[in-house]
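Sat 14:20. Reprocessing the chain from the morning session after the first attempt stalled halfway. Input below, unchanged.
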Amino acid sequence: MPETNGLRGELRRDEPMVRHTLWRVGGPADRWYRPADTEDLARFLARLPADEPLFWLGLGSNLLVRDGGLRGTVLTPGRGMDQLQFLEGNRVRAGAGIGVPRLARLCADRGLCGLEFLVGIPGTLGGALAMNAGAFGDEIWSRVESVLCMDRRGGLHRYDRGAFTAGYRHVQGPREGGFVEAVLRLEPGDPEAARQRMQALLQRRNRTQPVGVPTCGSVFRNPEGDHAGRLIEAAGLKGLAIGGAQVSQRHANFIVNTGGARAADMEALMEEVRRRVRAHHGVDLQPEVCILGEPAEVCVP
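Finished this time. Tokens:
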């Protein structure tokens, strides 16, 4: 592992991932690093052993880290990677560490529209790019002109949008390592109208989704032609609980941490929901949430 000599970021060992996931569960990562900026990240990666497991993390939404934690290094973008630059032609260059609600608001204030749907999504641009985040019929990759990626040795690679195929909550292409920035093409519009649209979207989310409790966002992908939440609710599963994990009473495709939940509770409840929906509807729900790490009994004495 690299020593901190010459590095400007923050390195922690045995870092509890409960601090870095929106579900507020997860065992420790062997190492956790928050680089000061892109240059610092490249220097850190250049020192990593070639066989070191590496995990790129944003705000920890749509992520379940098991109770045994992660063997390897977790990278989280720091403030030096949340830059935003306004370019000609209704374009912006944004760092992977910028929160997408903030990105949407800053662009709207400049009369650049098309990202309003991001205002209620708790994540960074890097995470949004990795999973093609979307809401209310819009997706982030519909706005991408180009991306800058960093490989695990610290090398930078720029790709045009055409090099990638973006689908429902996934992206395929020549990406190496993680995203460090993107150029987005937006549309000119009225700032006040954009702000009103964002406010309306937030109000809609607050009416229909759980707020004020730890949740990772939508747990299951929507099957073609249907909605996971409808299938779960129709199977009578609202309120179903295992340990501290519970299917939300407000939106059935959300699982909330009611207090003291373990990652094992979350995963067990996910599997029980899948089993009952399969029995009730004949539909096998696929997780939207990414599951990483080891069960506690494997890694914890």
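The radius of gyration is 20 Å.
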